[in-house]
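Annex B, item 7. Sequence and structure tokens for protein A, then protein B.
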Amino acid sequence: MERKEQLKEPFFAQDISKVFQTFETSEKGLTTAEAEKRIESYGHNQLNEEKKKSILVKFFEQFKDFMILVLIAAALISAFFGDIADAVIILAVVILNAVLGVFQEAKAEEAIDSLKKMSSPEARVRRDGSVVHIKSEELVPGDIVLLEAGDVVPADMRLFENASLKIEESALTGESVPVDKDIAVVTDENAGVGDRKNMAFMNSNVTYGRGEGVIVGTGMATEVGKIAEMLASSEETMTPLQRNLNRLGKYLTIAIIVIAVLMFIVGLTNGRDVVEMLLTSISLAVAAIPEGLPAIVTIILSLGTQKMAKRKALVRNLPAVETLGSTDIICSDKTGTLTMNQMTVEKVYANNQLQDAADVEVKDLPVMKVMMYANDTNISGEGELIGDPTETALIQYALDKDIDVQAALAKEPREAEVPFESERKLMSTIHKMTDGMYFIATKGAPDELLKRCTKIDINGELQTLTDEDRKAILDSNHDMATQALRVLAMAYKIVSAVPDEVNTNTVETELVYAGMVGMIDPEREEAKDSIAVAKTAGIRSIMITGDHKDTASAIAQRLGIIEEGETDAVITGAELDQIDDATFAKTVKKYSVYARVSPEHKVKIVKAWQKAGKIVAMTGDGVNDAPALNTADIGVGMGITGTEVSKGASDMVLADDNFATIVVAVEEGRKVFTNIQKAIQFLLSANLGEVLTLFIATLLGWSVLSPVHILWINLVTDTFPAIALGLEPGEKDIMQEKPRGKEATFFSNGVLPSIVYQGILEGTITLMVYWWATHNPVHAGNEELIHLDALTMTFATLGLLQLFHAFNVKSIEKSLFTVGLFKNKIFNLAIVTSGVLLGMVILIPGLNSWFNVTTLNMEQWLIVLGAAFSIIPIVEIIKFFIRKFSKKNNK
């Protein structure tokens, strides 16, 4: 049966009677029969499940890369002509790389699964005139749902009953405190999700009060459903590392085909056998392709993830390790990432004086007593504070001041109360004192509370509340509000008896003003320093939040994201809606702070920066962050406060929710990139040396190195040192450098010319040794033994050349003696291991005949060692002139 599309009207801007009429329902709810019909029409209240790829499909998708296909072709041709060993080794490398690739997929699948797990399992709903419990997936548009504290909202609802209802929506909107709900019509049809006060959204949490609402959206038609749809439809972003590897593969493939064809033609022109030249061309292809590169890059990235894990950054997607190092922009969610996601008392106004909360001695102040008494926070047996974050902040402040809250409440217990209502913005409690009198504690909005006060407590003396006092109080209230503090005022009075009728008219009159407190979700202590470090590294921090513009601006100033008075850098989601994508991409650099934004806005911001050519990291912990986390070049989720949805959409998760860890991860990412560059410089200069050796030898009619020799060198003397170069310690000034930019490649910063001249050196030295071996034969007159000696010396020289050359690659420009010869213990072990493995196939009888090499005498070994070692002093001299030239150009 074809599903009926759900309505997408702005129900928050409509009168509730019209909403009832639209859904053909009433406060009594639907009948069971009608609900069953609607399930048939609209489907179940659950998120769509995307069809997942099988492991087999994912495995075969790893073979799309053209360089991999060239390797497979080389293996098949080798096998066809009887070189089984070569074919097996090549295919083993290719399959290993594919297996590793399979484990790096399916972020969006995990994110959507997590969204489904968040859903409320059951809901209380009116059916057939009675309140019943049903599975949330069976809810339909038009159902009437009852909510109370502790419930998870099961679908998107238009509220029509409200008794002090508060709903925590930070995972969806980014707003740091629970929202006071209201049933009044929202007049702005374009109001953002956070401003739709008469709506309750799927997967948000009821923290206080109770309410009723009519379901206006289920499953994929909810706000959470829209996020799931965005996640499912978002395109997988290619990381800089993947772009670089693809580009490298393209260049290498073209070069390999051109050189192999040219070599084949030259050989045939010189009268060589067709099959012999085909095998020689395969040798050259094997020499040119760094077949170990995919595995080596994967290993270097894996080692990078282990280092990051030790520093609380857990990488879920391997290429993200390197992406961090190239980050230009960090778009960070405010709540829980830059701030503590924990309301904290910061200012206290008492005795007509505004002070920092830490400096006030509040133990005997009436303002402290009211904070504790007019408060619904529960303290568990383990000391955990349970309740509204604003109220728990007040109790936490009392506890921080060494006040025994539970003892105070036990001594003067609550006898009655006037609950909070959003219309009057006040709450009051009545407590029996030890002398038989009753203490009334009232807290609420300063302007509303002042209307109920006639006196003021100043240093324990009750004085008439004058106009000057009111002005001073309201001025202080304004000062705190401009600093983005949430202000609550406190008042009290002492009466002889509890009124017969406990209500606002009998309790909340002729009060004594006690003071005010200003609260905020404070910035993390380490966040400001981290933002400064990021700025030094050329990385711009952008704050994105669901909070109001003033709050966002104030926090951004405190963090150093914007300067004081820099109002042009702050923009709201509503203002952003007025800017089309093309214009925004051109003006995005103007803005550093985004307030009252929706998930769509976050994606728009990330894409605008990407269009500006920047590599973007997005941090976040809420469901609302998931689409942007998925769209960004690298998504960074929060391990402690983060939802499973945001973690599932992320490339990396911060185990400690610490913004500073991102900067640490960026540093590690930069180290990984430079180390991959070193590995590539080492591998390609070695492979270029091999190609030149084979190509020039063919031109000269020399027969040097078979495919098995090249593969052994590539897999033994190339692979271990290349992996070990991935463990090189980073340069000390790595975080003083600017981001390398989106267009930077592995060949940037002098790597390409280094590959070229070092490859030419390796090829030249190797050919010189071959020439020496043929012109200074040990076995004069025996052409077969002369050729075998020359082949062995060429093989040994090329292998040892690469081992000695690995020391040169520790730095592109700096001297080996400045970088340090033996600091990297793994590198030293790799060189020794590779040297032993190279020597084994020459020195061990039986093994050397399988490799078609022979043992050498002392003179031959001295020539080989001297020629191989010579690359170190030669490169040192060239580096010296490079440094001189660079200094001259920089003057």
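Protein B:
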Amino acid sequence: MERPPTPPSHPPQTYAVPRRARTASVTVDEQGAVTGWSDGARLLLGYPPAEILGQPAARLLAEPDRSAWRNAADVPRWSGIVALRHSDGHRLERDVLVHRRPSGERPGGTEWLVVSAVSGPAEAAAGQALGEWAFQQSPCVSAVFDEELRLARASVATQRTLSLAEGMMRGLRLTDVVPYEGSAEAEVSMRRVLDGAGPQEVRLHLDPADPERTWHARLTPLADSGGRVRAVALTAHADASQQLVRRRMLVLGDAGVRIGTSSDVQRTARELTEVAVPDFADVCAVDLLDALPRADALAPGHPQRPGAPPPDGVALRRAAVRSRPGTAALPRPSGDVLRCPPWSPSGRCLAEGRGRVYPGDDKAVSRWEREDPQAAGWIRESGTHSLLAVPIRAGDSTFGVALFGRNRRTEPFDADDLWLAEQLAARTATGIQSAARAQRQHTTTMTLQRSLLPQTLPEQAALDIATRYLPSVSQAGVGGDWFDVIPLSGTRVALVVGDVVGHGMRAAATMGRVRTAVRTLADVDLPPDELLSHLDDLVVHLSAEEAGADNAAETAGGVGTTCLYSVYDPVTRRLSAARAGHPPPAVVTAGTVRFLDIPAGPPLGLGGLPFESYETELPEGSLIALYTDGLLEPREHDIDDALDTMFAALGRPAETLETVCDRVLTSMLTHRPDDDIALLVARTRALHADRVATWELPFDLAAVAEARKLATGQLAEWQLEEAAFVTELVVSEMVTNAFRYGRPPVRLRLIHDDHTLTCEVFDSSNTAPHMRRAHTYDEGGRGLLLVGQLTRRWGTRHGGTGKTVWAEQHLAEG
């Protein structure tokens, strides 16, 4: 981009530089001391070297605030008018040019070179003649240097390129104006021109804003009417081929960083247009197939090779479009469906599988404009004189077409531009392919994870429950967070939350295996700490299996998985829980929010480390909140703020648990989470004494009849006479087994909730009953078989001492 010339420091005028003119040059070190003093400086300011060397440079300034010098310390070059003080005390204002450069005396140090021209009387007529000769014979960036190699005239283009006014440069040599690579060699060539060697060719670095840019310069002798060479004209132009290659490489490098940064197909298409405009083209459109290749077509072995499009054309959806500011907007915005005929640039591109360059008057472009002005009219409206169409392909899969147009740039697209466009399109295709695969994998993982999570909450009378699950939006994919609600015997309910390490398909599959193991262990009615110990062993085995199969570090098999397992008993209103590296649950009682002080325990998969159970009594109507750590990891605030926010949301009264869940999430999150979030909120119920009956029985087979009588009497009190027959048989068989195979004491308990009648028999023996197959003439052995046939389910749970055999009947709604 061209820069405007620096405003001149004096009104424009034309004069020659005197033959005896000198350059005043001074070097100043980092401490501001004068380290170099030229003869021109002595002529300008009157100080001999011995008097000024080593002295502060500020001594030379007429202005006490030194403000004119402050900018020079921070930039590589500075120019301006500076008020100086002559040795005899008078003030003079001079144009000075300041260069910052490496110190020649101290390695790694810096010094400043200050230069100014020392001019005598003006020779306006001669200067005007030189200027006329120069600007009549110089076609581009040009300057005129006199016989002493000092600049006499500079064209406007030269001033713009160097960002210096002509008045600032007049009287200085090329090595003063541009002390860069090639300047000294150019002065040697200038001297040859003055000596009659004829025109010379040199290479220079002229632009301080772009020191790597090379300029090709021609040095031409300027002769007077008598044929004597009086000056040298320098004309220069940028090395176009080198700059073009550099620009293309920059565009290609930019594409490697900016295209394909997300798993969003539309965003990937936009990234291509942002890279292409304005550095490569003035307008760019990305049109994708209305139906992208199927997921299975993206896999190896399912090629989608180019072929003839249908006679009525192919459907393309405009995914992204961008044009240089000031260029006519494209009539088809993003999202529109285009029908591209087979002979159109897009149709031919898809059919042939390769790109083409089209001039603005190409027959295919003209026909396209005539027959579908909405799709192609922008070519003429925007003044596009060169069009380039390339397919967006990755391997054997084609995703669409990229169109590039030029209307502001004068040069048309060429074969090298076609190559660059194909590279940009290939990078885009790779991004789209990766995005499509990521979306497919994300969908598959989500489907798997959803199928593994509870679809509906089971019926139970111990708790009111509401849940939420929010998948993450990170590129890593869906994680392995889960929750579960498991009805247990005796109307108890287990609440579980867990978090498997990692994301994606593997984490979801591991989550399914761990969740299934928890449900299996819960059916055995293990205490929370024992259940986590068994689960820890399982994760260790999973890790060993996966490491042996894949031999990869990332196959952790669930190592580091966290889990919280809790059991609530509505009869005793007690909650027992244990956790393996998981955040503790929050409990709200009487408006007070607190964490339960459950020992943390190690994450699962480490092996051999103990877990501890915690037990507490909760009043009826208490609120329990279980969650995964994604809830406490918002971007905007720290963990303490997150906990305060969660406590405030839980502590506010709410009519329903659904409201509580929504309130927690909306107060904690301002955007979709970076990690999965599972949230389970439960409100406790209680089974009061009128719903529970317990009796301790004498250890005598004769007490079986008394047990049946007590049970039927209680059923009559509960108005459950229709369940009396089955209950008598169940009680008789279970109590008999306790007397025959167990040890005292023996207790019978009946529990009645809304839809279930539970019969429990406790004895202090740890021997578990089991069904056995009775032969035809056996007198016994059929008791548990009858219990299993007459009840919905039955089982045994072990405590610290003894066991409880239980059986549940489903009660029909009255």
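Comment on protein B: The longest helix spans residues 415-452.
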